[in-house]
Design goal:
The chain has helices at about 15-25, 55, 75-90, 105-110, 130-140, 145, 155-165, 195-220, 220-230, 235-245, 255-285, 305-315; strands at about 5-10, 30-35, 60, 95-100, 110, 175-180, 185-190, 290-295. By secondary structure, it is an alpha/beta fold. The strands form two sheets. A six-stranded parallel beta sheet has the order 3-2-4-1-7-8, with helices on both faces. A two-stranded antiparallel ribbon has the order 5-6.
Length: about 325
């Protein structure tokens, strides 16, 4: 029985989080808890790198493909559900291991957001505005918060503008409170040299497209396609646009240009994640209650890192 300890695996997309966790599952009684937003929605699979059935069979998996409606699932909702899932996992004598790259959901395991206005910004007079126009609007009133949000992330743009229009206060002034799930937490930051990561991302984009990603997007309803664009899921917008222009094309073939643009978008996203995780590590260091370890996945053996994690959890038996 492990006494309310948990592990969070953080790292940029394509760095090898899933493989690392599968290795960890061979050494410890863990349960994987998803912290990747795209993997929470049932219709998205190839494009969000859902774990395979074989990978899921290695240990219990939670919060994968559990949302079957194209509706927003907030960070606050995620935190509340994560707390319930942890209680269940601890009762089973296992250790929750959170895995995924959605940065704000990752942060929510340690820092809680203040109560925010519930009035939705996306009223009829603003629904016709593009993501770029929303970003420009936010930049005019709060450049600090705008620079923290990608212009395609409509949900966070709308949330930030909701705060502004409902309260008159800049969204960047709303600070989080350090409140980890428990104080027996370990954050494992996975890293790869930039050139190695970029090469892996380029290869993976081509492999995913060849593995049925285009067919997956082609089978999505218009509602789910719109939602993928709204959430800024990498690659989906590009494939949707390509399908709209190539309705009679063989879906098994795709142009190199599509691989190139998806690879570039993914590399840009990975860079933003790396920037966030460096800042996140500094935030945790200030509070000094959560242990952290950095793992360079280019090393031939990860055994030393695995031993460190096992040792951490053994303190709470």
């Amino acid at each position: 029985m492990f006494s309310e300890s948990f592990i969070s695996i953080a790292g940029p997309t394509g760095c090898g989080k899933t493989a690392f966790v599968l290795q960890l599952a061979k050494e410890m009684p863990i349960s994987v808890v998803n912290i990747d937003l795209g993997q929470m929605y049932a219709p998205y699979s190839v494009g969000v790198a859902q774990p395979s059935a074989k990978e899921k069979a290695s240990c219990p998996h939670h919060l994968f493909s559990f949302l079957d409606q194209p509706k927003d699932f907030s960070v606050v909702e995620y935190r509340a559900l994560a707390e319930k899932i942890c209680q269940k996992i601890w009762a089973e004598g296992r250790i929750p291991v959170f895995v995924g790259g959605s940065t704000l959901y990752q942060q929510s395991l340690f820092f809680q957001l203040p109560e925010l206005p519930t009035r939705c910004f996306s009223s009829s007079q603003h629904s016709s505005l593009s993501n770029q126009e929303l970003w420009n609007m936010l930049y005019q009133v709060d450049s600090v918060r705008a620079m923290q949000i990608h212009f395609q992330d409509r949900y966070r743009l709308e949330r930030a503008l909701t705060i502004w229009f409902a309260t008159g206060n800049k969204p960047s002034t709303y600070s989080t409170t350090f409140s980890p799930l428990t104080q027996k937490g370990l954050v494992v930051f996975l890293t790869r040299p930039r050139d190695v990561l970029c090469n892996d991302i380029n290869r993976r984009a081509k492999e995913m497209l060849a593995s049925g990603w285009i067919n997956e997007v082609a089978s999505l309803s218009e509602e789910w396609r719109h939602f993928a664009k709204k959430k800024g899921l990498i690659g989906y917008s590009e494939i949707i646009d390509w399908l709209d222009l190539n309705k009679t094309q063989d879906l098994e073939s795709f142009p190199q240009a599509l691989v190139t643009i998806i690879s570039q978008q993914t590399r840009n996203y990975a860079k933003r994640q790396e920037t966030f995780f460096r800042r996140f590590a500094r935030m945790l260091a200030v509070n000094k209650l959560i242990e952290t370890v950095e793992c360079d996945l280019t090393l031939s053996s990860h055994d030393l890192y695995i031993e460190q994690i096992v040792h951490f959890c053994s303190q709470y038996r």
